[in-house]
Amino acid sequence: MSEDNSATIQDMDNLFEKRSYWRSLSLFDWSWAIALLAGGVYAWQQYSSLMDVYEVAILFASIIAMVAWGWLWKPVRAYSIAVTLISLFAISLYGNDLALGETNFFLKFLISGKSAIMWMSALYVLATVTYFSGLFSGSEFANKTASAMTWSATVMGLVGLLVRWRESYLIHVDVGHIPVSNLYEVFILFSIITALLYLYYEGKNKTYSMGGFVLLVISSAVAFLLWYGFGARGASEIQPLVPALQSYWMKIHVPANFVGYGAFALAAMLSVAYLIKDSALTAVSKAQGNSENKGMRNIIIKRFPELEILDDVMYKSIALGFSFFTLATILGAMWAAEAWGGYWSWDPKETWALIVWLNYAAWLHLRLTKGWRGRPLAWWSIIGLFITLFAFIGVNMFLSGLHSYGEL
Amino acid sequence: MLDKNHQEMNIKNNHLQSEQIERIRSSRQEHGVLKVLLSFLGSMELAITLFVMVGIASIIGTILQQNQAYNTYIIKFGPFWFEVFRSLELYDIYSSWWFVVLLGFLLISTSACIYHYFPVVVREWHRFRLNISAKSLKLMHSSGSWISHSGVEESFAFVQEKLTNGGYQSRCKTEQGVITIAAKKGSINRLGYLFTHGAIIVICLSALYDGNFNLKLREVAGQLKPETRDLFASQVPDISRLKAGENHAFRGNANVPEGSTTGLVFLQMRNGFLVQELPFTITLNDFRIEHYESGMPKSFESDIVIQDKESGEKISKTIEVNHPLVYKDFAIYQSSFDDGGSIMDMQAWSLDAQEQKIMPIKQVVGEKKILPTSRGEFKLELSEFKLFNIQPNPKAEETGRKFKNMGSTLTFRLRDSSGQATEFINYVNPVEQEGRYFFLSGVRSSVSQPFQYLFIPADDQMSLKRFFSIRALLNNEQEMQRIAEKTAALSLSPGKGNSSEASSQVAIVMQRLADLFNRGGFDQVVADIEDKVPEDKRESVMDSYFKVLQTILGTVYLEVLQQEGVDISSNITPAQEQYYDDMVNTMGVLANYNSPVYLQIKSFEHKQASGFQITKAPGKDLVYLGCILLCIGIVLMFYVAHKRIWIIIEPYNTDEDKQGAKLLIAGSGDRHQKDFAKEFQALSQLLDKRFS
Fold it and tell me: How many angstroms separate the Cα of A157 from the Cα of each of A70, A130, A176, A205, A250?
């Protein structure tokens, strides 16, 4: 804790000293930006014939976003470098022959699109167990291992998606598309984004005790994607895109949406932790010396983060989710205006997006204007997750409409 | 505990805010009812209630499928509930009166909220709150005091510089040697509030403007009436028509066959429609579908020409999904496709005729025509023609192709005089199965069932002629009698002393068996045996019956081959033998085909229609403007913190230090108290370093 505080204060020092932000950037920061830019220019030169003007814009906007992200949250640089190197290795192994995925050792067992996802799945589940064991045993080693596992899983997940992207082009250039087009693919995206959001707060608040809870929701996503992707549905096979999805909008609409879903999921899991700790605290203050369940309560009270931190991260997570969800819904409306002939059609998916939006808008109003805190909002954000889940999967399962890609 | 403090703090803040609002409100001289009404409309309670109500209404709209045919609802809910739901406008919830009223209230509530808050924002924008007392500073969340040895002026310069570095704007005043600095940053955060709430109003109003609200008003006024009958556009009466310039916003559909032109779109309204005239015409020159290898559609494209009705100006463009054509205020989208009246050249083979004859039929897909048959009059309804049928390839491993095109199909219904319909799907070309070719026809009596397929073997000429010749022969009693007698005579060689009486006995049995088979296949023969023969003798009887049946069927087959002019004097070929087996198998199940005829498609002229959606949404740009406002507003609200710092510097003279100063510093971070605490800590650290 003390280390963290001094570090932030050091950062904050800059705020009242006359030093430009640009000067505070290190050599690594600048190399990061230059490397990304170089990569972007290379991609543009190589593939500009396949991209329309919007896609070029998206490419460079994402380069800028990546630069900013790396400057804002330093660990993301090491993460991106690892993902880049492994993905490039896999792509170079493939060459132009998709069949190598079945014969080449590295591809078959480690880093083909499907294998990488398998590794991701295994690592997330292991990390969940390890986080919980760290929480109950109090072992710092277990916590750090769990964190490393989560990072590795997240690396493998993104590698899996990137390699899958390439694989789709190896099937046929017409089939090639960004892998965010069916439920299997977006569940991977959901897992990665939720994990990254969690890792950000883990680093910022220097607490590992939330890991198990957040990873629980990721493990559920993993269970679903294994069933959906490799079970009877076989959705892990790459399918070409229906005409409605062939648009640059997909590249921004879907990821923006999943930042929203991921953040809402994170907030809900933190709420669970909040409620557990709050109940433990209440029970202790009521019991006063009654020794029933004392050990468990002590662990909870001692190891769970401060209620204030939980409450704060919950709010920040919902604020972030709400921002991205709003953006995603707007992008969706603009896409709909181009593909379906109207920016709003009261299609079930659209309508449920509105319901989710209203739900969190109400949540934020109560917190910001009415000054609500703590338990009621924690409960609300858990209910919010179920509403979000329905918008995300339930609509595809139970309702039909324009948005029926990835049916169950 | 911390949490409690937090809450108290916030309540205090909140209290402060509402106090301000109260002050401003009273300054506006609002009285009595209006005041109560405004504060009710602008209240958070109302806003949250409206959120929940809009949410629930939306959920109902997603669970209850909207804008279906009214019949579907009657079947689903029964006449009573159908009427209840209809009167609540649940079938088109999102343009129902009460939903629009709900949205209207949300608009009023948001507006009232802005009305209350706007003056606060404006006032706060310029206000630095210099008149703050030392006492209230000490009560703030973050506060501290420092003693400086360097005097009031110098300390002032120091903190002033630090505040500027920190991005704070400040104002100061000096009163009796005491300097008060009031600094703030992130005031723009307050604009976030206005932007987001303003955006909601802009978006809702523009969307309402783009909706069909005005049409509903005109309907109530009796100026419009949606047409509910199934009419051609030209037959629709004037009360259901809208002139080109009459409607400022709409969203309609038009189906245009290849080579045709339209100047109208249909606007759906509950269970009816309105005809909307366009100021231009759309001509479809060509429609193309491309497929992936798996048969999944890859792209839909329409080559269209639009011509302005007034200026005559022409524009040609290819539109596809995700790439609409924007013309003036209109946008034309590729939304669906359909058959545009493909012409089917067919022939009907009778299953009942005693002499094989073919009836030619020419009919357009979508048409219904009377078809006279041996079993009375039927109505033939051609429902769908498909140019391709891509299915998983059973020989994927040998050929390396995962999918196979099975060719074109025609789906049609035969409806008898009582209105009962049977659905069929016929393949245009014979389909290969294990080296042989078959005409495939699927049949089902209800849509919920899967098709049951009939495989009719194709003869040497790849035609159905041989099969239906055999069928006709089997139907022909006289011919069958002749053949039976001939066969019986041949099989009972006269040399063995068989009488002609025995021979005719056998012939009768033969003919009866052939007839049974013709009417119901082998099953019928078996049923007959089970009916008439005692159980212990059945097996032997069955054996001999089948031999007899095979003999006569074989003779019939040979007879037909002979008629065709096939040389059968030497042994028949394996292919001919195979044909016989296939023919017997199919003939045996023909009774289940449930149709008096087999429809063969000889040739077709494929004609497609493209489904366009044509919209006019003048509010769209405003909606987008609202969206941009909303995004900016959200960023300002969540990510720009409104922070204030106050510093009071007063001379502080101790015995040894006559030039000292005392600094009282405090601040607040509004909704970002935690972040501000860190910032304040950073400032404190600098002050500690300087003044300690």
Answer: 19, 19, 19, 24, 19
CA distance A63 to A59: 6
Compute the CA torsion angle B566, B568, B573, B579 (nearest 10 deg).
60
Closest chain B C-alpha to A360 CA, distance in angstroms: 10
| Residue B605: its H or E element | strand B597-605
The tens digit of pLDDT for each residue in B89-117 reads 888 888 888 998 999 999 999 999 999 88
In this predicted structure, what is the pLDDT of residue B31? Answer: 66
Average pLDDT of the residues of chain B: 86
Indicate the pLDDT class of residue A145, thresholds 50, 70 and 90: very high
Task: Evaluate whether A104 touches A163 at the Cβ level (below 8 Å).
Answer: no
Contacts of B321 in chain A (CB under 8 A): 243-244, 246, 339
Q: Is B650 helix (H, G, I), strand (E, B) or coil?
A: strand
A15 → closest Cβ in B3, B166, B300:
B166
- What pLDDT score does B14 carry? 43
- Judged by CB atoms closer than 8 Å, whether chains meet at A358 and B55 is answered as yes
Q: Do A12 and B678 touch (CB under 8 A)?
A: yes
Q: Count of CB contacts below 8 A, A vs B?
A: 163
Interface test with B, best of A6, A13, A16 (most B CBs within 10 A): A16
From A15, A243, A338, residue closest to B297, measured CB to CB: A243
Domain boundaries, chain B: 129-186+641-692, 219-248+250-340+609-616, 360-456+602-606, 468-600
**Record: contact B65-A400, CB cut-off 8 A:** yes
Taking CA atoms, what residue in A is nearest to B10?
Answer: A371
Task: Kindly identify which residue of chain A lies nearest to residue B633, measuring between CA atoms.
Answer: A323
Mean pLDDT score, B608-631: 94
Confidence at A374, pLDDT banded by 50, 70, 90: confident
Interface touch B14/A340, C-beta < 8 Å: no
- State the amino acid at position B26 in one-letter form: S
C-alpha B544 chain-centroid distance: 61
Q: For residue B391, give the H/E element and its range.
A: strand B390-392
Answer whether residue A381 shows pLDDT above 70: yes
Q: How confident is the model at residue B9 (pLDDT cuts 50, 70, 90)?
A: very low
- What pTM does this model have? 0.84
Please give the average per-residue pLDDT across B476-489, as a whole number: 87
Q: List phi, psi (to 5°) of B78.
A: 80, 160
Question: pLDDT (tens digit, 9 = 90+) per residue, A201-213?
Answer: 999 888 899 999 9
Q: What phi and psi, each to the nearest 5 degrees, are found at residue B393? A: -80, 120
Q: Is the pLDDT of residue B312 over 50?
A: yes
Taking a C-beta distance cutoff of 8 angstroms, is the pair B588, B505 a contact?
A: no
Helices H, strands E: what count in chain B?
A: 17, 26
Contact criterion met (CB < 8 Å) for B162 and A351 = no
Q: At what angle do helices A113-137 and A294-303 cross, to 10 degrees?
A: 120
Q: How confident is the model at residue A334 (pLDDT cuts 50, 70, 90)?
A: very high
Beta bridge partners of B369: B380
SS3 state at A247:
coil
Lookup result for tokens 């957040």: A214
- Tell me how far apart the alpha carbons of residues A226 and A219 are, in angstroms, rounded to a whole number: 10
Question: pLDDT tens digits for B370-402?
Answer: 998 888 899 999 999 988 887 777 776 676 677
Contact A240 B292 (CB under 8 A): yes
Please indicate whether, in this complex, the C-beta atoms of B322 and A370 are within 8 angstroms of each other.
no
Nearest to B298 among A18, A240, A366 (CB): A240
Best mutation site among A6, A312, A358, A375 for testing chain B: the one with the most B CBs within 10 Å? A358
Alpha helices in B127-265 (DSSP H): 134-138, 151-165, 189-210, 213-220
Q: Does 3.30.310 match the CATH number of domain B129-186+641-692?
A: yes
